[in-house]
Design goal:
282 residues; alpha/beta; 2 domains; 9-stranded mixed sheet; two-stranded antiparallel sheet; ETF_beta_N; electron transfer activity; ETF_b
Length: 282
């Protein structure tokens, strides 16, 4: 039996994100919120592992009260329990402060529902895009960590060891390590299922457990919120749009079109930039 914790975050829909030209900050008003989709792939893999090995899944989210909607979606997909960690004292947290609060939350989850075997996070979030929270949690909890996981091969329940495939720039790394472990999920890990009707009905009536700063008597207040966040965003801006000239090469003969394309490339600055030899090219 496994106890799997999945960390999720409610983020602005990246397809709707806009930047205020005066303040250079994200415009969140009127922008729909969604569950960070990398986190959903972590939840899906947790569901697959529970189906195969048994156990329970607890989802945890640090965010404002409306983030309850994200947890309800996780419940509709099949999670067993959900915890919303919310308090004004947590506001303004960077990745360092966020990983601290989530690590303390996972400790409390272990005390409440039993020891944790696997922690899933997404490889990154759509709004922060740093990829730092997962490793930060692992360091604070002294967990083995496997990042950029694209496949879970399996778990040996007798030896309590897990084997995964990690995506690297130059290939795939096959790694085996002991439990407990933290995994950061890639979208290639799986295909997220649709919620079932029983799941949606359960989610409609579900109320997550809510923890505030008062529920963490040993919390170091200097490590949360703005006080615990050494990261400062000096400036943000929208990249200037550059016009690009496009020319279509018409015709049905592929060889002629390819020859035309090559001739046009030789008329650009590419040969000089890359040191191409036109004689060798022929």
């Amino acid at each position: 039996m496994l106890h799997i914790v999945v960390c999720v975050k409610q983020v602005p829909d990246s397809r709707e994100i806009r930047i205020d030209p005066k303040t250079n900050t994200l415009i969140r008003i009127g922008v729909p919120a969604i569950v960070n989709f990398y986190d959903l792939h972590g939840l899906e893999e947790a569901l697959v592992l529970r189906e195969k090995y048994g156990g329970r899944i607890t989802v945890v989210c640090m965010g404002p009260p409306p983030a309850e909607k994200a947890l309800k979606q996780c419940i509709s997909l099949g999670a067993d329990d959900a915890v919303l960690v919310t308090d004004r004292g947590f506001a303004g947290a960077d990745t360092l402060a966020t990983s601290y609060v989530l690590a303390e939350s996972i400790k409390k989850i272990a005390e409440t529902w039993g020891p944790v075997d696997i922690v899933f996070t997404g490889k990154q979030t759509l709004d922060g895009d740093t990829g730092q929270v997962g490793p930060g949690i692992a360091c604070r909890l002294d967990l083995e960590q496997l990042t950029y996981v694209q496949k879970v091969v399996g778990i040996n329940m007798e030896t309590r060891r897990i084997t995964v495939h990690r995506h690297l720039e130059d290939g795939v790394e096959v790694v085996e390590t002991k439990l407990p472990v933290l995994l950061t999920a890639l979208k290639e890990l799986n295909t997220v299922r649709r919620a079932s009707m029983p799941g949606m009905l359960r989610a409609a009536q579900f109320k997550p457990v809510v923890w505030t700063t008062q529920d963490f008597p040993n919390l170091d207040r200097s490590k949360i919120g703005l006080k615990g966040s050494p990261t400062i965003v000096g400036r943000s801006w929208v990249p200037e749009q550059k016009a690009a000239n496009t020319e279509m090469i018409e015709g049905d003969d592929v060889k002629v079109k390819a020859r035309t394309l090559v001739d046009k490339l030789w008329q650009t600055d590419l040969p000089a930039r890359f040191g191409w030899d036109q004689k060798a090219q022929g």
